[in-house]
């Protein structure tokens, strides 16, 4: 295992992704021969003598279980450095923590609601300015740049509308203007997309989601190959204490071992669900990059090796129909979060994106009839059957609303 300062991972790029997910930084424990990386459940480490340690001194700064996770994550993104954090928003915070008063940040307009809240209600108080733009339009991104712009922040695919930004085009723009380019890669995961290869400087993950994959931890990560940025980010993480516990790191490593298998199954199910929804009369619109009807399907094919497990759609009948649907599923569980083996669904407008003002939601396309699915790895046929019966409930609600509207008009 690498000792302190999380030195370069020495990624074995000749090994396949699935192999690195299982083996990178996860050799047998040298002291016992344990096959699986141990949980080093300790707050401090004994020094050999004053000024001399065995690579670890205090667990807020470093922990061997966390080091293994950081090195493995960096390897999967073909990067040099990884910084594991206490949550996805902790990862966002430590990146934003390298900014200073007066800095300007360009952000994708349909960013996750928790990120919007963090930027607008916390970091904006420190005189950091945020401009929200449609990152599908590279001209709009460029037009937002001013003399104080320091960073571009985007999700691709976005949450919850599954919109894409052209990673290479934004990377070229960021390089031309000497800007830090950050990509949230939570939805795609490094199995389907590696933004550093398109010019990104920093990648952010909520390891809570697909990377751990079992809905049993909270965690985040920041990944980069830029040593200077790594040192800044690592300093903020250590100074603010935004670190995960060793047991959470252990669970994340366990989940990552099956990431390749799970992502293939998530995608296979999501494609089947999206095609079903696209053909259903109660569905107004479906958002999934794997559909040929998706306006950025060809871009997705160019910069992603797969389309992921997230599907969003607009049910006809607005909020009443959406409420009937999300309350009526049996396999899809109504809950926040995503990326686990169990299928989840949510109503973004009132749940994940509630921190965003209603008028901003509507501008971005987050309407009251929008439902977001995190398609798990159950039987695709069972999931489709579940949605079919829930859509029937939604149609009944829509008929009632339509009848009441007709009576009111008369």
Overall number of domains = 2
Name the poorly predicted regions: 1-11
CATH superfamily of the largest domain: Type I PLP-dependent aspartate aminotransferase-like (Major domain)
Measured on Cα atoms, how large is the radius of gyration? 22 Å
DSSP helical segment count = 14
What is the molecular shape? globular
* H-E string: HHEHEHEHEHEHEEHHHEHEHEEHEH
Corresponding CATH architecture of the largest domain: 3-Layer(aba) Sandwich
First-last Cα distance? 75 Å
Fold-level CATH name of the largest domain: Aspartate Aminotransferase, domain 2
| Number of beta strands | 12
Please provide a written account of the structure.
With 410 residues, the protein is α/β, with parallel strands linked by helices. It contains 14 helices and twelve strands. The protein has a seven-stranded mixed β-sheet with strand order 1-7-6-5-4-2-3, sandwiched between helices. It has a five-stranded mixed β-sheet with strand order 8-9-12-11-10. Helix 1 packs antiparallel against helix 2 and helix 12 packs antiparallel against helix 14. The protein is globular and about 75 Å long. It starts with 16 loop residues before the first helix and ends with a helix.
Q: What attributes characterize this protein structure?
A:
disordered N terminus, globular, about 400 residues, about 15% strand, alpha/beta, Aspartate Aminotransferase, domain 2, 7-stranded mixed beta sheet, 5-stranded mixed beta sheet, Aspartate Aminotransferase, domain 1
């Amino acid at each position: 295992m690498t000792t302190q300062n999380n030195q370069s991972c020495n990624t074995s790029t000749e090994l396949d992704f699935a192999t690195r997910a299982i083996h990178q930084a996860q050799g047998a424990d040298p002291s016992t021969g344990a096959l699986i990386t141990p949980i080093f459940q300790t707050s401090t480490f004994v020094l050999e003598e004053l000024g001399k340690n065995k690579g670890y001194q205090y667990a807020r700064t470093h922990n061997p279980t966390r080091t293994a996770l950081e090195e493995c994550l960096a390897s999967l993104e073909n990067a040099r450095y990884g910084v594991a954090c206490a949550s996805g928003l902790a990862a966002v915070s430590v990146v934003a923590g390298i900014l200073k008063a007066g800095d300007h940040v360009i952000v994708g307009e349909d960013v996750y609601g928790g990120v919007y809240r963090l930027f607008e209600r916390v970091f904006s108080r420190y005189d950091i300015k945020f401009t929200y733009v449609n990152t599908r339009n590279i001209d709009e991104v460029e037009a937002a740049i001013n003399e104080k712009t320091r960073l571009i922040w985007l999700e691709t695919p976005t949450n919850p509308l599954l919109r894409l930004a052209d990673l290479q085009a934004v990377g070229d723009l960021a390089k031309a203007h000497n800007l830090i380019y950050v990509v949230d890669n939570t939805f795609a995961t490094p199995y389907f997309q590696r933004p550093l290869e398109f010019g990104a400087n920093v990648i952010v993950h909520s390891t809570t989601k697909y990377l751990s994959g079992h809905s049993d931890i909270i965690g985040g990560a920041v990944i980069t190959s830029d040593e200077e940025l790594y040192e800044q980010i690592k300093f903020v993480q250590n100074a603010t204490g935004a670190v995960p516990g060793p047991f959470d790191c252990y669970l994340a490593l366990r989940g990552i071992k099956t990431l390749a298998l799970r992502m293939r199954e998530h995608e296979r199910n999501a494609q089947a669900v999206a095609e079903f929804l696209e053909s259903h009369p109660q569905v107004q619109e479906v958002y999934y990059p794997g559909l040929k009807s998706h306006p950025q399907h060809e871009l997705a094919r160019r910069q992603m090796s797969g389309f992921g497990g997230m599907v969003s759609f607009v049910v006809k009948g607005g909020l009443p129909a959406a409420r009937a649907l999300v309350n009526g599923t049996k396999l899809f569980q109504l809950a926040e979060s995503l990326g686990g083996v169990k299928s989840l669904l949510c109503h973004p407008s009132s749940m994940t994106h509630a921190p965003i003002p209603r008028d901003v939601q509507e501008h971005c396309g987050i309407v009251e009839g929008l439902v977001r699915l995190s398609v798990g790895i159950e039987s695709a046929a069972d999931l489709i059957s579940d949605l079919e019966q829930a859509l029937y409930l939604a149609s009944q609600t829509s008929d009632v609303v339509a009848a009441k509207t007709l009576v009111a008009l008369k």
